[in-house]
Amino acid sequence: MGLGFGSFANVCIYRIPRRESIVEPASHCPKCGKQIKWYDNIPLISYAFLGGRCRYCRGRISLQYPLIELLTAFLFLITYYKFQSAPFTLLIFLLLVLCLLIVSAIDLQTYTIPDKLTYLLILLGLFSSPFNSFLGEYSLIVIGSKELSLVLSSFQGLLIGGAILYLIALLGQRMFKREAMGGGDIKLISGVGAFLGVVNVVWVIFLASLLGAATGGLLAIAGKYKRFQPIPFGTYISLGAILVFLFQPGFNRIYLNLLSICR
After folding, report:
1. Which structural domain, as residue segments, surrounds residue 115?
2. What is the pLDDT of residue 222?
3. Does a structural domain hold residue 76?
């Protein structure tokens, strides 16, 4: 199933930035325009059988296609093992993984995050919150109604996550006299916060900042980083979000150990 959705993710990654429909026309070669037959569109297998080239024009097919399919399959598999005992939560986080993969690839290629994807994440996070058992584990709000507690926790994660990045963006703009963070990143972290809650969205921001700084540092050392070069921060947010919901108990232990050391 992950391979199939990975193939769909590739369609979205290619078409959404170009403002094309993800439904029609049918899959076609971007070089010669020929429609791709169903037997040439089987995830991984068709790529290997065709030798990574279009059947008609022999143009090279980007390695992105099998890589995205493999990555989606891998993430779907470990998400299944994480949430297999909670079917509704499993469905919620499979959708989250798919959206984050699409966002990551688009941001990496274009340095933009389409609003339709961030708004979709926000709506999915809020409307699925009453069934999100992961959100319930780390909720800071406890009232009479469990479902209402989860909805309020989702709102809390959305607002706090968005507010933190908005403040960072304002601070960066004052310091560098230019836009330091795009609105797409702020909306993306709001959507992630709606799924994960306030405690975990702070971890996501921390990890995204750490990963972004480390990557920027390595590129600077290699001489491949230019001053004020755009950074696909949405990609780091997505990676941080996936790491947090898959390995949250480990982050929680780190937090408790740091807390005990400070005391």
Report:
1. 107-263
2. 75
3. yes
